[in-house]
């Protein structure tokens, strides 16, 4: 088991992000947050292809990096200083048989960046609007068909 764990850590470390490639760091953080490129693009108001090219960029201007960091729910510095090694270290120290107690566990960001109830209400409202548009289209279709029948 210990050998398997070491092999896994070695694999992650061998594919770790380069320290200077900010786009790869953004990509990795986005993946760890469970966010797809499309979702990040929607939040930033850009296309998915723009997010893809952003994640391939080695350097990104500060203003754009700030916007990305805000959407990802981290600080600009967290993106700049991100490393797989630190992530592995934190996971090992906080979750693998650590008997230090809950007070020593470092939690970086457990706050939601949105209110789930607001998103639920928003989804419900969008569903209602979609239903109303569908109903309107059906009424127009029925009216058109009745008009065609009246002409015959």
Automatic annotation (TrEMBL):
Q: Give the source's domain of life in one word.
A: Bacteria
Asked if Coiled coil is a keyword of the record, the answer is yes
Q: Which residues form a coiled coil?
A: 117-147
What are the UniProt keywords, alphabetically? Coiled coil
Q: Which SMART domains match?
A: HTH_XRE
* GO MF annotation: an example: DNA binding
InterPro entries linked to this entry: Cro/C1-type_HTH, Lambda_DNA-bd_dom_sf
Enumerate the spans annotated as HTH cro/C1-type domain. Answer: 26-79
**What Gene3D superfamilies does the record point to?**
lambda repressor-like DNA-binding domains
* Name of the protein in question: Lambda repressor-like DNA-binding protein
